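Q: For a teaching session next week I want to show students how multiple molecules come together into a single three-dimensional assembly. I've collected the sequence lines for a complex. Could you give me the predicted structure tokens for the whole thing so I can convert them for display?
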Amino acid sequence: MSTSIARVHGPAQRSADALSRPVATRTEGARARWARRLPLLPALIYMIVVTQVPFLATIWYSFRRWNLLIPGSNKFAGLQSYRQAFSDPTFLTALVNTVEITASAVVLATLVGTGLAVLLNRHFFGRAVVRTLLITPFLVMPVAGALLWKTTIYDPLYGLLDFVLSPFGVHHVNWIGRFPIPAIVTLSVWQWSPFVMLIVLAGLQSEPLDVLEAAKVDGASTIQTFLRVTLAHIRRYIFLAVLLGSVYIVQTFGKIYMVTQGGPGTATTNLPFYLYEQVFNAYNVGVGAASGVIVLIGTEIVALGALRFAWGLLDTVQARS
Amino acid sequence: MLKATLLRKPRHTGRRARQLSATAALASAVALAAMVPVATTASAAQSKKVTIRIAIVANPQMADIEKLTPYFEKEYPNIKVVYDTLPENTERNVIETDIATQAHEFNAVMISNYETPIWAKNGWLVNLTKTFIKKDPSYDAGDLLKPIAESLSYKGSLYSVPFYGESSFMMYRKSLLAAAGLTMPLHPTWSQIASMAAKLNDPSKDVSGICLRGLPGWGENLAPLDTVINTFGGSWFNMKWQPQLTSPAVVKAVNFYVNLVRKYGEPGASNDGFTECLNYYDSGKAAMWYDATSAAGDIAGAAPKIYADTGYAWAPVGPSGKKSGWLYTWSLSIPTGTPDQQQTWDFLSWATSKQYIKLVGQKLGWAQLPPGSRVSTYKIPQYQKAAGAYANLTLQSIEAADPTHPTVHPVPYTGVQFIDIPGFINLGTQVSQQISAAIAGRTSVTSALSTSQQDARSMVSEYGLGA
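A: Of course. Below is the structure for the complete assembly, covering every listed component.
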């Protein structure tokens, strides 16, 4: 792939060209093109139906004010549901909580995951077993993991945390009641660090050894090698892990439902949980749908901005390496 | 190939004859087919195999009915029963959505005395008295406990039938009270309970003076708290539907409850619901426990030594002296517009009959039969022997509960530990969240109640109450 294309057209254009231009467009006819696309149609139709139909239904409901508990309330209401959603103080609290939980969990998971990957990158006795054990939290079902943490670790009377910290005088602390956001964030970090670790480990293991040798020959210490050479190489992997991790952690619902039920008060109510409460506690389909559309638009803006930044970063990184 | 078929020369020989015979065959087939339904509808009611789907909650009593369903299917061979068992919160959501959208996914649903009057008013439930009970005197609806039957009725007719019922009372460890030199009066007051809890609270031995619910949920921490509010002379709304959550009586009641739990309650109370308190009490970590009368049966099953050491007293009262035991029942109901309603009623009447109650006692144990639904249950000698310690107090507590006049001053709503209006699901959840935060020490009672007051105002305006 010629780097001149990268500089002239920009990364988005380059990838678009690479993907959309089949190998032999000009020589084969429309028949060959359709023969290539036809097998993909079932998957495409399925995806469109499964994602777009509920999406359109949500937009439809967001313009009505339907409360399941009030018979006959399914009427057109314009933007009233949107106004109700914006003016609900819990919505804004949920927004702030979502940002707080996601940012903390992603940053901490990245640090822990990268650290673990660096440790796993060298050979030692029992490395395969340790690697398997470290991946396990990611494989445990999220809801089962949340219940496990709630009852066996966080419980003030019987929990492991209480058992371990009792000799130090920390006794019968209500972890979930007094520190709800750290409790949820710790649980998220426990679950997602293996994810980051796997991605960064792939990056570390793809690092060309000659660069490391050259650094050693030039007299760089281990820390200098890591900071100047390794980090530059795995930067794109870390970024990928951060991007994917954020997308998943923003949607945290199972942990909050099982451990804190959005509480105490509204301390751990994030946007997915707020939506759930609107539809299944208040049975307010209109406001729930409107909140969903608002969240979607917000996520689009953030994601597009992040992706733009990311492509720029990747471009610079690739051009430099 | 199609082209070849179309161009083939038609054979004329015997074509008309073939057409005629084909028509005759078709006609006779149609005639036969038409006759078959006529033949079956004659005995349709008897021989038609019907499957009914029941949505139930995952409680031990419901597990028992699943075990004993083969007896029902033996008696009614044409009816097959399929259960959809879910945990309480999920089951409520599923059923509410199903009924509100008229999806008719279930033939019968397990609801409570909260939903029944509201849904009956909306026309979502079948009038069981008019449609079935009037024609079936053997059901003996007069045997149902009066407050329970009234709470499941609308305009004098039953819209669901009780599976089991409960009130609330105080359970305590006789040995721990004796060791502290205390005796529990049969009709205690909350101030007596508070001073006893102070003496019984022993952190060095990991024993709390009292166990009280703090878990968020309108059916969790609000159930006992509402009874305390009622008996302290408070209420949620006045007759004009103005929220009263910051009134002096309510503030006093909530402060009492929250401080009692904070000082002498179990650690982590803000996350403890019925199940957690049951576990704490069963493992001897609580000297007293104020909760549902049905808990006694659960203690008997899980911790026989603790059960043998447990005494029972009436639900404590506040300064007003108003009896405060709550009233709750899980009941079975038929949504309107569903098919096979007669067969569904056959199952409902079996599941809530005297025969079923006796069957549970005979096959699974006398302490396990569904309590609090029929007067005749409490006359069964084997049940008196197995559950005598708490059975009579349960019966008396249920009979003393008055959901139509739950508070000291008149109120525009019914319900002892809940408010029987549709908006209560959301309002109750929001308020219970605030209370849980107050118990956890993350917010003061004052700010919890002022937030709750605002939530109550929004609910009143959304549902147009008192307008």
